[in-house]
Description:
The protein is an alpha/beta fold. The chain has 18 helices and 18 strands.
Amino acid sequence: xxxxxxxxxxxxxxxxxxxxxxxxxxxxxxxxxxxxxxARMLRERTGRVTxxxxxxxxxxxxxxxxxxxxGAFLRRRGVGVTAVLLAPDKAHPEGLSALRRxxxxxxxxxxxxxxxxEADLVIDGIVGLAARGGxxxxxxxLVERATAPIxxxxxxxxxxxxxxxxxxxxxxxxxxxxxxxYKPLHVLHPAxxxxxxxxxxxxxxxxxxxxxxxxxxxxxDVATRLPxxxxxxxxxxxxxxxxxxxxxxxxxxAVLTTSGAVLTxxxxxxxxxxxxxxxxxxxxxxxxxxxxxDAGRVQAWVTGPGLGTASGARETVREVLAAGVPVIAxxxxxxxxxxxxxxxxxxxxxxxxxxxxxxxxFARLAGDxxxxxxxxxxxxxxRYNAVVLLKGHSTVIADPKGHVFVHYTGRAWPAxxxxxxxxSGIIGALLAAGIAPLYAAACAAWLHDSAATIAxxxxxxxASLIAEAIPAAIRGLRVSA
Length: 481
Ligand SMILES: NC(=O)C1=CN([C@@H]2O[C@H](COP(=O)(O)OP(=O)(O)OC[C@H]3O[C@@H](n4cnc5c(N)ncnc54)[C@H](OP(=O)(O)O)[C@@H]3O)[C@@H](O)[C@H]2O)[C@@H](O)CC1
Ligand SMILES: [K+]
């Protein structure tokens, strides 16, 4: 599991560690790691380290200090180093003298000439944890002129560390070396796509950090939670999932949602709705009926995809919410809950609910997402006493207690029509198997993305093929676990 802390929590932990370490030791440790990564990048890119040329972009604070110290360490390995100072009066004094002592060259940003274009590697020490807003014009102009790969110190300058928002010019790095802990920007879209490979360096903060603010599931975490049938299981004991989705207008949504559920776990899937014939034709193993009252018992209901928003759909959502089992409400079910607040009264108190809006559905329900997706989703989860999964390049999942998972895809394969229907079927299957709602949603997001990647393998892919790749995604997990 990858754990993520906001900048204020990291600063607080840093203060504790700084108070008991020798002055400057933490920075030198961080900077040494940057120099090691820089040397590796030089060797991989140019075949050697000695004699190569690294340009440091140095801002007004400790992030620039890291870059200056890294430059001093690189000098010891025979690398030519030029530091470009964006704020000469504020450049980190000890870092600057260390670089000068080591034989590094120092130039002012306004006198930079062709220096950025002559580099084999650029180190971005413009701004780190204190970053606010996009790059300022002088920094943006420098970055624009750099043609070599960029190694970002702590984070690519110009992105917002806590929200991952990119509201102006920003560095796009080939790699990022970060210290002490992952920060939200490393896992949130769009900033995460500016980081390149992220390398975390231990500087002794972990014991002081406490509980993380956000988590990211690894394959192993998903593998240990996925329901596999045990020897004593039968088709009922693994949890029966019910699908109340689709209809005569959108029978495809019924099929796709059912596919997600059928292919995620063994056991039984029931379908209730006017697309029963279409579902039965595609999945003969599904117990399909025309109405909810004939559906029989289930351990979780999935509702919403392709349901429409007419009065019949509203009644379906009302009945499902009143059934006393976990519910996942997607698409039109979210729209109905937004448009008819009285529907909330139907919810059997205490039964788990997972809401899976995309951004427009989220806006209808809880207002504009804004730049801070994690804050918006956490607030909605508290307000509705539900797990909320906001879809996107970074899918954000929060529960009412403030636990948050992020799943960053970095690719757009899952962004295809009907793909959300498949996701809700997967979540339903995991909920019915008894997995806690937060984990059901987070594992489903992971599994869905993995299936999309497998199905796509480099080409566009429709939602039905994403569903068909779910077994391969599960098998892949078992192999890697
Ligand atoms: N604490 C520690 O022990 C350790 C800390 N470490 C390192 O320290 C870093 C944090 O350093 P920090 O707090 O000094 O601030 P930092 O991020 O360098 O910003 C400097 C100044 O930049 C400015 N600025 C703001 N936005 C901007 C923008 N968009 N574009 C351009 N400029 C912008 C703003 O100054 P202003 O111009 O507004 O006065 C701001 O004050 C951290 O990320 C890590 O690298 C490591 O060494 C490990 C040990
Ligand atoms: K930086």
